[in-house]
């Protein structure tokens, strides 16, 4: 029939737009079109702009990877920004002030983040406290602990001495390595660290039994329990992994700033949630994936970069992030009907 092709095309386009991948790709495409239209006198077309955009979104992306694991179980992790700050302070103290080897600083930083995640997971899954409350408590606790350990100051290369003076030391080789650029200066090391974190999260979520248990718990926790899924243990693992990835993000944040700032990471959890949601992972749990989160990271990261090169104030960027979260949730809701 001659009039069937247009109907098929419309039906296919509608099916694509109603799918999570279609909506995520469309959102990224629209953001890139905005970048082309508002290119800041050609700045958007420069290689350095894209390199810096990928570098800037990498730390957020690491948090989003962990957030995806937690949200898949139907939970939320509001503590990742504060855990990032705590690990940044601890890693700076170990690497700068105590001059510990990278072989100690890296695993200990990840373990500190994982320990915070373990605390959130135990309170959430074992003590049956709402994830919002449990991770809110961890958010406040980790931020306070970071300030306590840092003495209310940034842990920098100016090391205080017993006589009240300061001795300036070199930036640790670990920090210089993480903050370096590779492949002729076109790729930042921190971007590769982010991709490694995304690969690990993908393998856990898509290729490991733990990932299947996350989806089952997020879909229906009681049904998962009756089916033999260890709901408590698996939920705790989701928060542990999220904390560990926040630990990696904290180490990278300290490396880029060359110091441990107890105020770092404030509000990062909102950006991480926005990246996961705009990608299409359901806040209700049970649906989503790392591929969608990567699209969300690129969308929010490029949107922030485009607003930055066009000198849009940070307050406006925050308001746009809030609007995007609501729009993404409404789109998800519409897509279910």
Automatic annotation (TrEMBL):
Q: How does it sit in the membrane?
A: Multi-pass membrane protein
- Where, per UniProt, does this protein localize? Cell membrane
**A Pfam family annotated for this UniProt entry:** BPD_transp_2
Name a single GO cellular component: plasma membrane
Record keywords? Cell membrane, Membrane, Transmembrane, Transmembrane helix
Q: Does the keyword Transferase apply?
A: no
Please name the GO terms that the record assigns under molecular function.
transmembrane transporter activity
Major localization class: membrane
Please give the superkingdom of this protein's source.
Answer: Bacteria
Query: Transmembrane residues, as ranges?
Result: 21-40, 60-90, 102-123, 182-205, 236-254, 266-286, 306-330
What is the protein name stated in its UniProt record? Ribose transport system permease protein RbsC
UniProt organism field: Pseudobythopirellula maris
């Amino acid at each position: 029939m001659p009039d069937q092709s247009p109907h098929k095309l419309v039906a296919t386009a509608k099916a694509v737009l109603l799918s999570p991948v279609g909506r995520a790709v469309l959102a990224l495409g629209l953001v890139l079109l905005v970048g082309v239209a508002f290119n800041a006198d050609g700045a958007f077309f420069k290689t350095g702009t894209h390199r810096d955009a990928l570098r800037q979104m990498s730390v957020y992306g690491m948090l989003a990877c962990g957030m995806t694991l937690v949200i898949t179980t139907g939970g939320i992790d509001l503590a990742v920004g504060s855990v990032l700050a705590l690990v940044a302070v601890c890693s700076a103290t170990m690497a700068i002030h105590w001059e510990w080897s990278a072989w100690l600083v890296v695993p200990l930083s990840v373990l500190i983040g994982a320990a915070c995640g373990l605390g959130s997971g135990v309170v959430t899954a074992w003590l049956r406290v709402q994830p919002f409350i449990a991770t809110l408590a961890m958010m406040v606790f980790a931020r306070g602990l970071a300030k306590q350990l840092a003495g209310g100051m940034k842990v920098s290369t100016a090391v205080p001495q017993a006589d009240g003076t300061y001795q300036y030391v070199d930036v640790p080789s670990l920090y210089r390595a993480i903050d370096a650029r590779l492949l002729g200066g076109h790729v930042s090391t921190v971007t590769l660290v982010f991709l490694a974190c995304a690969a690990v999260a993908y393998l856990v979520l898509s290729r490991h039994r733990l990932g299947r248990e996350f989806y089952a718990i997020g879909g229906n926790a009681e049904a998962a329990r009756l089916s033999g899924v260890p709901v408590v243990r698996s939920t705790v693992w989701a928060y542990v992994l999220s904390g560990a990835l926040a630990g990696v993000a904290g180490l990278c944040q300290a490396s880029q700033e060359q110091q441990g700032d107890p105020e770092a990471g404030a509000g990062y959890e909102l950006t991480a949630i926005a990246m996961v949601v705009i990608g299409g992972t359901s806040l209700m749990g049970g649906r989503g994936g790392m591929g969608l989160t990567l699209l969300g990271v690129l969308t929010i990261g490029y949107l922030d970069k485009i607003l930055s090169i066009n000198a849009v104030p940070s307050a406006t960027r925050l308001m746009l992030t809030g609007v995007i979260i609501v729009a993404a949730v409404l789109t998800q809701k519409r897509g279910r009907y």
